[in-house]
Design a protein that fits this description.
The chain is mainly beta and 352 residues long. It is 5% helix and 57% strand. It contains one helix and 28 strands. The strands form seven sheets. A four-stranded antiparallel β-sheet has the order 1-28-27-26, with no helix packed on it. A four-stranded antiparallel β-sheet has the order 2-3-4-5, with no helix packed on it. Strands 6-7-8-9 form a four-stranded antiparallel β-sheet, with no helix packed on it. A hairpin with a 4-residue loop joins strand 12 and strand 13. The protein is globular, with a radius of gyration of 22 Å.
Length: 352
Amino acid sequence: MNALRAVVVCLVIACAAVVPPAAAVPPGWSALPVPPAAASPVTVSGLAARGPGEAWASGYEHAVDGLRPMLYRWDGVAWSRETSFPGAGDVGWLGEAQFVGEEVWFLRDRAGVKELLRRSTGGWHTVALPRTLWTYQGFAAVPGAAWVVGEDDTGPQVLHHDGSRWIRQSVPDGVLYVMGITARSATDAWAWADTATGSAVLHWDGTAWRDARVPLPPDGNVHTILPEASGRVTIGGSRYDDGVARTYLTTGNGRAWHTVHPPLGDTSTQALVRGPDGALWLPVRSDRAFRSRYARVDGPRTTFSYGPERQDAIDVRPRALARAGSLLLSFGTVEIYGSKPNLMSERLGGRS
């Protein structure tokens, strides 16, 4: 009898080991209310998070008299409109957001003048740019360094701030445009550029900008570069195969590179992030007008999930993603039937 009981107990334990507990099922996306913008439509520029209790979403409203800067703050509980920064009511826009330690930085246009806007525990500060460019393709900031890239009548421009002054940095011969930039440290920055022979990835090692010799897919372009503290770098973009755009992801460590083509169609990878689960996440075009859609790329496997259903929505578009501790936050726009697109936000993880 005791032997039979032991067998039964063993079978129960074995069954429990192969049946995942309900708590192991990852939570779904939930909607986070966002106070509507004063004017619509709106454009979302970026989203940055320092943890589950602080995130910032930037962009601009399309008002009757021109563009107006738009800034929202997440405090771990709710989104609120932020209007305390200098020139909040001026014509202009806010570009992407980035955290530098405990500070949050933005590239901004204030009545035609470009500058970096910073918020620290001491309040708001601005850093004037040394020259006016025709176009501004982006910026990157890390402790001890910041870059702004664009072009003017002399060609491509990479402007570098070392904490006290601005210096113009040279780019390799053959670079026609610098399209974007990101950085891991003051001596480890990455940029993507157009050259006479196609797209190229540039690397700053603290001394000079050089061609990183990344074997990008032929006839391709770059949307984003995601450098990580581990040394891993992921490049996202699209290539053209018989005239059809196809998304690719190239991952490497600066020496060896590997390219995959997940089933994402022609999705832009501009909002690509590394999630708290270790996988890559990005918003994709949804096949359901009333729900957002996200892709999760984990090695060779790509899966999809949907945001919550939104009543009377005809277009739900997450524009930016950010990891916020154990959460993923998204920020974007939603168009309700009969109105222009306004703001939306969603969260993966935490309490629904």
